[in-house]
Amino acid sequence: MKILVLGGGIGGMAAAIKLKQAGHAVELVEKSEDWKALGTGLTLSVLTLRALCDLGLQDEIAAQGFVHDGVDIYDQQGNFIRTVLSKRVIADDFPSEGAILRPVLHDILSKKVQEQDIPVFLGDSVSEIRSSLEHGNFVKFESGREQHYDLVVGADGVFSKLRQLLMPEQAAPEYTGQACWRLQFDRPADIVRGRMFQSETMKVGFNPCSPTQMYMYMMECVPKEKVWREPEDLPRIAKLLLQEFEPVLKPYIDSINAETPIIYRPLERVMVNGDWHRGAALLIGDAVHATTPHLGSGAGLAVEDAIVLSQVIDQFGNNLEKVFTVFMQKRLERALFVVETSGEIGRMEIAGESMMARSMLLAKGFEQVTTAYL
Ligand SMILES: Cc1cc2nc3c(=O)[nH]c(=O)nc-3n(C[C@H](O)[C@H](O)[C@H](O)COP(=O)(O)OP(=O)(O)OC[C@H]3O[C@@H](n4cnc5c(N)ncnc54)[C@H](O)[C@@H]3O)c2cc1C
To answer: Do 349 and 279 belong to one domain?
Structure first.
């Protein structure tokens, strides 16, 4: 089939790689001119790490990211509470979770795209699409180019243009009332798995994400409306938010300055109501199921979508009606579980519900996403 993948993020690149490997003629179109990933670390939950390994990236992630078996949990004074270890589901001799710097993962994936000679069109997007199972997709691009494709895969993220064009009835992304902070630090040699500090109201953690780096994560509740912050204000606000952890995190708090890589991002949620396809076009990843990062599994879901799509096309060929039906059967429930469970943990954090109740739901969520997806 001739396939357009719209969006060169994690899900779009995964789809392009898998579909090209399966012998299809794939084109990738990405809106940004420079095609770079911003951000610090990406948590590789069991779900996300396994999906990336299934894509063939195990060696690269082991070398350039950081893999480990779990997290040590402390209170805000630094008293050890417990260690939570994950089950090894990828291989007996390979840990099941970890983290990686987003730009590093982007480089690994984009190299694979280039190695496979997938044509990549940067700085362009879809302006019009007519899509039907009978006639395929007639696509007009913002550049003026016009093409016909048998299948269009939309992986253009949480604010998906393709979703707006194909599914104008769907609600816009919903602000969740929380913002995510990530700060990057040099990794001390003794941080070799996750390390989390929790108070009754907040948790802060470190995740090793490269041989030399780690990042700190924390979630801020900003319930009423989205607050954008100027980059120069971020170090000062981060220090304020971390105050209650000063007894145990003082050296890190003191070291935060204008040079510290800091990401602050208000969080949106999307869960498309009903099918993820219209005509001969299918949406995957954040375009249809953007989750908050409480389970560290949004990127993994997008990669799983790509792998399952390629597998279902192998099975049913260009019978897209069948492909989409089976794809939805395999993907909807799992994506819904992650989006809803993550959303519920966030809601409990905003409502100030007990750390015990939140930890129990988190543990249930992690256990569920460890289950196989293929
Ligand atoms: C703050 C934060 C922290 C997160 N942390 C984690 C984590 O630790 N672990 C995890 O697994 N997940 C995490 N996620 C979720 C994860 O980032 C997403 O689920 C994942 O990036 C989804 O991939 P995607 O390809 O669907 O979308 P994206 O990664 O958003 O990629 C979309 C791509 O499409 C391009 N694009 C956009 N519009 C157009 C257009 N009109 N035409 C063409 N191209 C377009 C964009 O430039 C981009 O390249 C986090 C999300 C957030 C917001």
So the answer is: yes
Nearest atom in ligand 1 to the alpha carbon of residue 42 is 8
Q: How far apart are the C-alpha atoms of 290 and 164, rounded to whole Å? A: 15
Asked if residues 177 and 221 have their Cβ atoms less than 8 Å apart, the reply is: yes
- Count Cβ atoms below 10 Å from residue 36 Cβ, excluding itself: 11
Best CA proximity match to 153, nearest among 302, 34, 299: 302
The residue whose CA is least distant from atom 42 of ligand 1 is: 125
Is the Cβ–Cβ distance between 156 and 31 less than 8 Å?
yes
For residues 191 and 206, the answer to whether their CB atoms sit within 8 Å is yes
Cα(243) to ligand 1 centroid in Å equals: 31
Q: Strands of 66-68's sheet, edge to edge? A: 41-44, 97-101, 66-68
Looking at the fold, whether 280 and 292 belong to one and the same domain comes out as yes
Which domain-ending residue is among 267, 291, 315? 267
Tell whether 156 and 29 lie within a shared domain. yes
CA–centroid distance, 356 to ligand 1, in Å, is 31
Q: Are residues 364 and 286 in the same domain?
A: yes
d(C-alpha 23, C-alpha 173), whole Å:
35
Per the structure, the count of domains in the chain is 2
Q: Do β-strands 25-30 and 2-6 pair in parallel, antiparallel, or remain unpaired? A: parallel
- pLDDT at residue number 202: 87
Find the 9 Cα to ligand 1 centroid distance in Å: 6
pLDDT number for residue 355: 86
Q: What is the pLDDT of residues 85-98, one digit of tens each?
A: 999 999 999 999 99
The answer to whether residue 85 sits within a structural domain is: no
Q: For residues 57-68, give the mean pLDDT.
A: 98
CB 183 within 8 A of CB 249: no
| Domain shared by 215 and 261, yes or no | yes
